[in-house]
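Q: How would the structure tokens look for this protein?
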Amino acid sequence: MLSGLSIPALRHYDEVGLLAPARVDLPLGEIREVLAGPDSSAVLRRHRERLVERAEVVSQMVGSVDQFLREGSDMTVKEGNRMVQVTVGAPDLSASIGFHSDVFGVDAIIDDPADNPIALYQR
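A: Here is the predicted structure in token form.
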């Protein structure tokens, strides 16, 4: 409570637009690091580097969209099935398998949890 205001008060002031928090998109662990130490410059430099990298990626995407707008693009729909691989961390494997089975209609095959935790196949 560096400002002397409670968390609920800060949230209320943010909601009514009276006192908006600084929007730096800093992960909670790094916020703790900033609050715990006397010098936050190392944390902020690392965060700035990540933001610059993100801005470069977004700039490249904008360039691609601009190119598509100038030159057009082939947006034909491909027929047939295509293989798609998605890697997602799952703290609760059973819950994750159940969710994906229900929502996406896929079956799970667990070969070797150490090497290939899960493979999902469309029913």
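The chain has two domains: 7-71, 79-123.

The first strand starts at residue 106 and ends at 109.

Upvote if useful.
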